[in-house]
Amino acid sequence: MKELVEFINKTPVEEIHPVLKSGVVHYELVRIHPFIDGNGRVARVLSTFILFQSGYDIRKFFSLEEYFDNDATVYYSSLQSVEKNNGDLTVWLEYFTQGLAIELTKIKEKVERISVDGKLRERLGGKPVMLSERQLKIVEYIQKTGYLANTGFKTLFPLVSEDTILNELKSLIRHGIVKKQGSTKAAKYVMG
Question: Three-state secondary structure along the chain?
């Protein structure tokens, strides 16, 4: 533990990237296993703290624990790969960095959604606009492709009825976010 604490405190950023340092510390704490219980939880908290200290201010947006818990078998297999590969951390660090990349991508998508909502609020005179997940998806789709036609409903929402999608669109139209061009089945929905 003393060597691990020394590694954490004295290893300069020029020597090892903070993401890799975080992954190494996570693995080492689990390997050393200093506590009777809770070593994994402490390792995850400590690795997140190392990221936070290095400028990854992500503490309220996600938890690496969620990523690791999604498939515990792969998590443990990745940790055990180090011993199986004579101390080579490659498989573990690939898994760890991939998890971080996935979680950071989720944060980016959330921020983009919030920014879409902010732009809509600005256009509507500052009134807050509460959009459902489907409505957000519709707005994002229209922003990317330019329009949404009835023929695209199944692609966008394969398991949702056409009536449900039309109800979501009616609400967006009522708020002036989307407008309908044309009529019936040939209609196109564009940004308002």
Answer: CHHHHHHHHHCCCCCCCHHHHHHHHHHHHHHHCCCCCCHHHHHHHHHHHHHHHCCCCCCCCCCHHHHHHHCHHHHHHHHHHHHHCCCCCHHHHHHHHHHHHHHHHHHHHHHHHHHHHHHHHHHCCCCCCCCCHHHHHHHHHHHHHCCEEHHHHHHHCCCCCHHHHHHHHHHHHHCCCEEEECCHHHCEEEEC
- Residue 18: its pLDDT value, please? 92
**Catalytic option among 17, 26, 33, 175:** 33
Decide if domain 2-111 falls under CATH 1.10.443.10: no
Q: Is 33 a catalytic residue?
A: yes
Under-50 pLDDT residues of the chain: 59
Q: What pLDDT was estimated at residue 11? A: 85
Residue limits of CATH 1.10.3290.10 in the chain: 2-111
